[in-house]
Give the backbone structure.
Amino acid sequence: MGSYMSIKILLADDHKIVREGLRSLLEKQPDMEVVAEAKDGRTIVELAMERLPNVVIMDIAMPGLNGIEATHKIIARTPGIKVVALTMHSDRRFIVEMLKAGATGYLLKDCAFEELTYAIRAVVANRTYISPQLADTVIKDYVRFFPNIDFSVFSLLTSREREVLQLLSEGKSTKQIASSLQLSVKTIETYRQQIMDKLDIHSIAELTKYAIREGLTTFEN
């Protein structure tokens, strides 16, 4: 395949060695090129808008803004970009939330590299690719849970509230969150109150435990 057909890829992972390994393997593919990489969700969202890749390889656990939220934002702004989750998490909640956010690929980090290139080509061709060992979980789940209301953090809180919750649980002060999200301190305080009311949790320590349990962050003090 000539370079004119090359699939433009962004890498998002908070481990440098993972990004470097993936980059060197992907660059060996005649039809793929890595155009940029990032170690956190917020940067990857900006890069996706700037570089308009065909595919984003997205880790889920990243500081500042996790992969699920980053996927939500990218797909909302540019539905044409495909997102493939590459993660250590095989928990059904992560799979379901990534798919709900708009990802069309989901692989575990212990997959063979061939599986990743196969998934990239599949999503570019508008197909969905889920690691075979996970597909069962997802299908059983959908059949079982489809009619039920989902009480996870992703249905209880708005996207902005989840963002504030993640930053709070990562130990950021109201002031730091305000400047990071370019909002006023008063607005962040309002969000914080709304989050506490909605979840009926009234301490930062408990909020942090909740955020870790729901997979919003892996940050532990």
